[in-house]
Design a protein that fits this description.
The chain has 470 residues and is of the alpha/beta class. Helices cover 39% and strands 12% of the residues. The chain binds 6-O-phosphono-beta-D-galactopyranose.
């Protein structure tokens, strides 16, 4: 059996994409709450303040805030052994810099943990998933300012102490390398300036290392992971210029993990910063903190792969469907233009394990697709089943043939949630359909798609059923 005993099977969400209730029980505004809806090819706008009459998807989302018991019961029915969710920072510290946490916010997540415990589902908590408090952006200029490191640590300490013994798996920042591709979403940074981004990234890496140490001190049973936006690239051609262009692209993405796993900035990054005339805001003791706060495991999202080369330069914008200047003629694409590359998952697992020698976990994977609800309410989604099956078979191959230690797999958006890149609802990942449309209207009812029973069986057989229809 390739999937080891105790392999974690489940799903993953982010608070701002599912909870809604954006101002309930004392919650403050986050960077996500001022992002309008977009579409494929239409960028989401960030409005300096809330515009009356404008639809903001995070404000209602799928109202998980009031449906979480029902949602977790469905996860239990699926057989989940793990649920990855994020805490909305502004429920706990509404402005980000308060001295004392908001009890009502903590109580909401206590309720989630109660439900998970009742169903025997292990929580994996993302401390910061695209939800920087707007208060920190406005008062401090967000992560460029070192004061935000302290705010984050106060927030992290609050969670570690409150849930000591209840949560053992933590991720410090979702897709930390998104600082290089979409810094507003990742960190409340609106600037195009590379120096601003790199100083903000330095502060996040420092905060992550200090939080990792703190988590270990508070409970030695805590395991803290890095979370990397799975950008992996193939060279456009055997032309050495394309190979070097690809190496450079991967270095720009992987330096974050290099710091989190090796405990210091890699030489190639230090040289690049020097050439760019960017000085990191290093203070005494920082080097020791980075070295002492390396992660226990490496997690990442995997949706697709890129092609890069000599033309791929500078700041690359966007989320997973990055414009690198090349297209892969060998791969099909989703309706949102993301390549579909199961084999690349095996490649990426090998690449990361060779480089970091840490246990790995796939904490996001799935297909964003348009679903059709039949008259009887059913949703037939063979495309989603095929996508997940093909990826899981490659994951199995990496474990079995290549000996890569993989802790678990949490599919993205087990129930349909708001898309992070476009703000749409129609880009659906779920095995559970949620009746909400792109304007936030609908009954909010949950129902099982065909993929629900399929995934349920995969989990029940610890992956063995993947071979039935392959
Ligand atoms: C990752 C993010 C998620 C997410 C997912 C799918 O980058 O961590 O928050 O939503 O991608 O992206 P999208 O929702 O844009 O399809």
């Amino acid at each position: 059996m390739a999937f080891p005993d105790g392999f974690l099977w489940g799903g993953a969400t982010a608070a701002n994409q599912c909870e809604g209730a954006f101002d309930a029980d004392g919650k403050g505004l986050s960077t996500a709450d001022v992002m309008t809806a977009g579409a494929h090819g239409i960028k989401r706008r960030v409005t300096p303040e809330l515009e009356p009459g404008t639809y903001y998807p995070s404000h209602t989302a799928i109202d998980h805030y009031h449906h979480y018991r029902e949602d977790i019961a469905l996860f239990a029915e699926l057989g989940f052994t793990c649920y990855r969710f994020s805490v909305n920072w502004t429920r706990i510290f509404p402005e980000g810099d308060e001295e004392q946490p908001n009890e009502a916010g903590l109580a909401f997540y206590d309720g989630i943990l109660d439900e998970l415990e009742r169903h025997g589902i292990e929580p994996l908590v993302t401390i910061s998933h695209f939800e920087t408090p707007l208060g920190l952006v406005e008062k401090y200029g967000s992560w460029e300012n070192r004061a935000v490191v302290d705010c984050y640590l106060r927030y992290a300490r609050t969670l570690f102490t409150r849930w000591r013994g209840r949560v053992h798996l933590w991720l410090t920042f979702n897709e930390i390398n998104c600082m290089s591709t979409q810094p507003w979403v990742a960190a409340g940074i609106a600037s195009e300036d590379e120096g601003v981004r790199m100083r903000a990234a330095y502060h996040q890496l420092l905060a992550s290392a200090l939080a990792t140490q703190m988590a270990h001190e508070i409970d030695p049973a805590n395991r803290v992971g890095a979370m990397y936006a799975g950008h992996f690239a193939y060279p456009a051609s055997p032309d050495p210029a394309d190979v070097i262009g690809t190496m450079r692209f991967m270095q720009r993405m992987l330096f974050y993990l290099d710091v989190m796993c090796h405990g210091s900035y890699p030489p190639y990054k230090l040289r690049e910063l020097e050439r760019q005339g960017i000085a990191l805001p290093v203070e005494p003791g920082d080097a020791e903190a980075l070295a002492a706060g390396t992660v226990d495991f490496v997690s990442y999202s995997y949706y697709n792969t890129h092609v890069t080369g000599a033309k791929t330069r500078g700041i690359i914008k966007g989320m997973n469907g990055l414009d690198t200047g090349y297209k892969n003629p060998h791969l099909n694409r989703s309706d949102w233009g993301w390549t579909i590359d199961p084999t690349g998952l095996r490649f990426s697992l090998n690449l990361l394990y060779e480089r970091y020698r840490r246990p790995l976990m796939i904490v996001e994977n799935g297909l964003g697709a348009v679903d059709t609800v039949e008259e009887d309410g059913s949703v037939h989604d063979p495309y989603r089943i095929a996508y997940m099956r093909d990826h899981l078979l490659e994951l199995e191959c990496a474990i079995e043939h290549d000996g890569v230690p993989v802790m678990g797999y949490t599919m993205w958006g087990p129930l349909d949630i708001v898309s992070a890149s476009t703000g749409e609802m129609k880009k659906r990942y779920g095995v559970i359909y949620v009746d909400v449309d792109d304007g936030g209207c609908g009954t909010f009812a949950r129902s099982r798609k065909d993929s629900f029973a399929w995934y349920q069986k995969v989990i029940a057989t610890n992956g063995a059923s993947l071979h039935e229809d392959a």
